[in-house]
Amino acid sequence: MACALLALAPVLRGGNRQIALVGLLLLSALLLAVLLGSVSFDRLFGAADGAAERRGKQRVGMPLWSAVALFFVASSPLWLGLLHLTPLPAGSWSSLAGRGWYFDALAAAGGNLPQSLPLSLNPDATLTALLSGIPALATLLAALFLPRPLIEKCLVVLLVLGAFEMLLAVLQFWMGAGSPLYFGADSATGFVGSFANRNHLADFLVMLMPLWFYRLAEGTGGRAARAAARHRRAHLGGAGALWLFFGFALLVVTLATLSRGGLLSAALVLMACTLLLIVKLKSQLSRKQQILLAVAAAVFALLALAGVGAERVGQRLDKATVQLDAETRNNFTAATLEGARAFWPWGSGAGTYESVFPRFQAADSLHYVEYAHNDYAQLLMELGLPGLLLALAVAALVVAQWVRLLRAYRAERRLTGELALRAYCGLGALALLVHSTVEFNMHIPALALTAAFLMGVFLRPMDAPRAKA
């Protein structure tokens, strides 16, 4: 069911589509029910602890504060729904920040004032937005509690989806602007895959790059590296060449999208993944081989750049073009933050941005703005202080987990498969967090579910080596 959620999400081209959302919600409810039953069984009968003990490990429980922070995040659709959708008396409602303006406008228009109103300025949009968060939370919890073999299968599903998206994008580009493979998307050109625009395809592919590195590291390190020579030759044979081609295709198609945010996040993620690969293989590589591996990664990237065309990429990164686009997005962000201040501390309500933003939009702006193109600014405007607390809770969980991973690495004196799995998935989730400073990736179902799953894998509790007598 977790694999099905991840596989079906790219079918939704963007935003919250109620009919498709019903299917995802049904699947999410089934997945959450199975997870609850499975985790309850393990806690009652100690199945997970017994399995860890048989592997020579002892289960390390999540610290209490981490469990509380995780519960705070996972239950957010429930408590945000109660906060934003519970009716308030009209007098109390109008006294809240940013809301008296609407009563004044209604009175000026000769309308009748309601007796009670929910906190949200668009309750229907808020309900849809909160429901749309449940599939992402289901994939997050699945990644936290599913056993590792099932996690590995879900990662394979994501990589297969990446291959499908790349093939679709190449066919779209080959067939031209009128291709039926754009599925009726207005003014769609170039590489977009099943998404609404190239930025979202780029972000999806960048999130998959660390998974490619993880499979490469697991195929060339650990047990495989200690196997017989014939097994190592098999890894470097046809399957190895195909895997290298897949990684090259990931990089080429990402560059071909010409998404500036995607290129930035890809550069950061690729550097981090290469360093992590060197750390993973350092016991098997000499210093000279480590340097050669870094040089090979740079040549790999340069070849991909040459395949796409350095001039085309350079045009997208031209200073004048970047400055003009950045000015537009900065104007959106500044107006959004103005709205966040107006509605502080309760926000305008989840999912209300499209209907509320025109109040703060510049009078001479000709754009119709559905999203802020900065998910963090939009989070502040819609959710206010609760949104800030949610972001801080996630940030605290991420920082604490990186510290735990570093301590475990020092204790093990090597990057084990378990540590590599968490670290690479963490870098995949980081790609979305970085790109979301200039995009609305968190509102696209496929991106939100993929990032939530990768974040869940990253935050998984770790097994510690069993203490010796």
Could you describe the 3D structure shown?
With 469 residues, the chain is an all-alpha fold. It has one domain. The chain is 71% helix and 3% strand. It is built from 21 helices and four strands. The strands form two sheets. A two-stranded antiparallel sheet has the order 1-4. Helix 9 crosses helix 13. The two termini are 42 Å apart. About 1% of the residues have low confidence. Keywords: Membrane, Transmembrane, Transmembrane helix. InterPro entries: O-antigen_ligase-rel_domated, WaaL-like. It comes from Simplicispira suum. It is found in: Membrane. This is O-antigen ligase-related domain-containing protein.
Write the layout of secondary structure elements.
Blueprint (H helix, E strand, L loop, with lengths): L1 H7 L9 H28 L1 H8 L2 E3 L4 H11 L1 H10 L1 E3 H6 L4 H9 L7 E3 L4 H23 L2 H28 L22 H23 L2 H4 L2 H7 L2 H19 L3 H22 L5 H22 L1 H7 L2 H25 L9 H4 L18 H38 L4 H19 L9 H14 L4 E3 L4
Antiparallel strand pairs: 1-4, 2-3
Helix pairs in contact: 1-2, 1-9, 2-8, 4-19, 5-8, 8-21, 9-10, 9-13, 10-13, 10-14, 10-20, 10-21, 13-15, 14-15, 14-20, 17-19, 19-20, 20-21
Keywords: Membrane, Transmembrane, Transmembrane helix
Membrane topology: Multi-pass membrane protein
Subcellular location: Membrane
